[in-house]
Amino acid sequence: ITYGDWSSDVCSSDLQLMEIFGQLCAKGHYHLADDKARSLVEGHFRALTEAAGKGFANGREARNFFEACIQSQAMRVATIPNPTAALMSGIEPSDVAAVVDRTFVR
After folding, report:
1. Portion of the chain with pLDDT greater than 90, in percent
2. Structure pTM?
3. Of the chain's two ends, which shows fewer C-beta atoms within 10 Å, N or C?
4. Higher per-residue pLDDT: 93 or 1
5. What is the DSSP string of 9-75?
6. What is the separation, in whole angstroms, between the first and last Cα of the chain?
């Protein structure tokens, strides 16, 4: 994944983080299970960019957040007997919420 220059606009920055998150999902064959999961990810990135101020958009932050969501998802799926492929590739709102809850945003 190639990360281009960042926009100095806070709104564009959180959109760029969301784009990176989406690329990581696609590369790993994952998807956000529904609009609520997407909304939670977008809200997290919005809070980060607003807290950090103008010009913030860190690709590493998007990757770390993605990896934490996948870890949360894997822990959930491990408790399901005979999970389907859809369950194994879907990132549910609860997976994202678990990461957001333990992420400190200044």
Report:
1. 62
2. 0.83
3. C
4. 93
5. SHHHHHHHHHHHHHHHHHHTT-EE-SHHHHHHHHHHHHHHHHHH-TT---HHHHHHHHHHHHHHHHH
6. 28
